[in-house]
């Protein structure tokens, strides 16, 4: 089973009140709010920094393949990120 981790991301309001729209690198997703940590809520189209729960699938050098629990807007549910962007739960 994959390890649960957090990945830094930018967060904005989702289409529904129960979700956020997040961006990680060149990919974007709609994710349930319970899977995202933010210090302040985004509003009026603003973006805030946050962390989204993800699952570590594979590691290669300084990169990590993660899978996100949401619906992709651009890209797939899996993406490669820098290990520097990971926060272990």
Quick overview:
Strands 1, 2, 3, 4, 5, 6, 7, 8 and 9 form a nine-stranded antiparallel beta sheet that branches. It contains no helices and nine strands.
Describe the structure.
This protein has 89 residues and is mainly beta. The chain has one domain. Helices cover 0% and strands 64% of the residues. It has no helices and 9 strands. Strands 1, 2, 3, 4, 5, 6, 7, 8 and 9 form a 9-stranded antiparallel sheet that branches. A hairpin with a 2-residue loop joins strand 2 and strand 3.
What are the salient characteristics of this protein?
nine-stranded antiparallel beta sheet; 89 residues; 64% strand; mainly beta
- What would you call the shape? globular
Radius of gyration over C-alpha positions, nearest whole angstrom: 12 Å
Biggest sheet character: 9 strands, antiparallel
The total of helices stands at: 0
Number of strands: 9
Low-confidence stretches: none
Distance between the termini: 15 Å
């Amino acid at each position: 089973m994959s390890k649960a981790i957090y990945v830094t991301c930018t967060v904005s309001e989702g289409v529904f009140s129960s979700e956020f729209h997040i961006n990680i690198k060149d990919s974007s997703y709609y994710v349930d709010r319970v899977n995202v940590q933010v210090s302040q809520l985004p509003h009026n189209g603003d973006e805030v920094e946050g962390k989204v729960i993800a699952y570590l699938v594979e590691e290669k050098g300084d990169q990590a393949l993660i899978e996100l629990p949401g619906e992709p807007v651009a890209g797939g549910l899996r993406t490669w990120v820098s290990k520097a962007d990971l926060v272990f739960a």
